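Much of the work behind modern protein science is quiet bookkeeping, done one molecule at a time. The protein below has been through that process, and both of its lines are reproduced in full.
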Amino acid sequence: MSGTLVHVGVRTTNLEQSIRFWRDALGLKLASQMDGCYDLTDGYHNFRVFQHNGPSRPSHVGGMLDYLHIGVRVPDLQEAAQRCDALGFQIIWDGVDGGKAYDPSSPPSESFKVEDPDGIVVDVTASDDQWPGVQLRGRDGG
């Protein structure tokens, strides 16, 4: 028996800022919107972003000390890095496999790490084989 990962949900302290990150900077598509939540998708997985309305949360450990991170494949790595930078999302590391400090004048060629508005680290790559065990369909959705 084999399970299939189909849904990830995160609660955010600023819903609109998080949607700018996941949709506008990284290119996930809007599937639906309800009061206090957005459903985004890559065509295979549901990524739900909720507005956190509870008591104050403990601060998130981010950067290279993250306890949670998410991987995203994009069609054009340099374009994604430029969008993140233009929208004010700081790239914290150039290269998932032990890279160097990010330099905007020398765009990443393999991958980069960026934090979402709540400090969740996102590994961004254009490679089809970044993560072992993942078999991706074509970039056109087929």
